[in-house]
Design brief:
single chain; alpha+beta; outer membrane lipoprotein receptor (LolB), chain A; Outer membrane lipoprotein carrier protein LolA
Length: 194
Amino acid sequence: MKKIIFLLGLLISTWSYGFSEQDLISQLQKPQSVQGDFVQERHLKALSRPIITEGEFTLVANKGLLWQMEKPFPIQLRVTEKGIMQWNGKQWINNGKLGQAEQIRLFLGLLSGDVNGLKTQFKLALSGTTEQWKVTLTPDSLLMKQIFNQITIQGNEVVKRIQLDETQGDRTDITFKNNRINQPLADFVRQALE
């Protein structure tokens, strides 16, 4: 689950590559909200076919992330600086097993454009242009080296794809589509992230 928590942070941050860290930080901090659809394929070494999940996400600046999986079954997660919570149909339930403070801090740093926070855990390599860019994160900390070989993020105006290559041979691919920037939020989303 630690991998999924970290993944959530990387999933939907808006990135544009301008060949400097400052441009990257500015771009990450620009949108007030990003909403869209996701398809996540989890390729486990032990399985011949990937596990596929689909749903919607909403990221609101300085508030957090709402991750609404619809297939294969519905589950709603809210990620804020207070932690990760799951909606039970009536209220948000804190489940300590869903995340650890280190991953949440890393995630929130990424959401706020804290490249320095990422650089404490990863070596960051930027390539491409603002129309088609790639960020490669190579683990630098002992914890991240135990989990990931590499994380690759690709996009243009927004993130389009994230690939997590894990040390034990598993891989997660997340594709984002129908991204909408600074659009009105549904009532449930707005209330969940207040």
